[in-house]
Amino acid sequence: SPAQKLVFNRVNGKRPQVLPQQVSATEECYTLAHEENVRFIYEAWQQVEQQLDGSRSGESACGPVQYVEKNPNPGLKNFVPIDLEEWWAQQFLAKIENCS
């Protein structure tokens, strides 16, 4: 399946302002090695997800096994995992608002 794209909703219905050209000059440049590493990790993770789905449906007896804690830590009872995509979206919007 293709990678999901982040969708940023307008804040208070306002249209985002266009950033000046000088800000775009500070964009990160990714090396070929970086892009290859990201592609490798993405493709490997896609394979793991497919194998997990296959093992859940009974297609394969071997493959990756999802770890589940047998005796959960009581200190983590109220733990709420962070939504990393939401956090990145907030950081992105804050950067845009600080530049305008």
From TrEMBL:
The keyword Cytoplasm is assigned to this record: yes
Protein name: MCRI2 protein
Family: Belongs to the MCRIP family.
Source species: Nycticryphes semicollaris
Coiled coil: none
Entry superkingdom: Eukaryota
Pfam families: FAM195
UniProt-listed InterPro entries: MCRIP (IPR029428)
Gene Ontology annotations for the cellular component aspect, listed alphabetically: cytoplasmic stress granule; nucleus
Locations listed in the record: Cytoplasm, Stress granule; Nucleus
Keyword field contains Hydrolase: no
Keywords: Cytoplasm, Nucleus
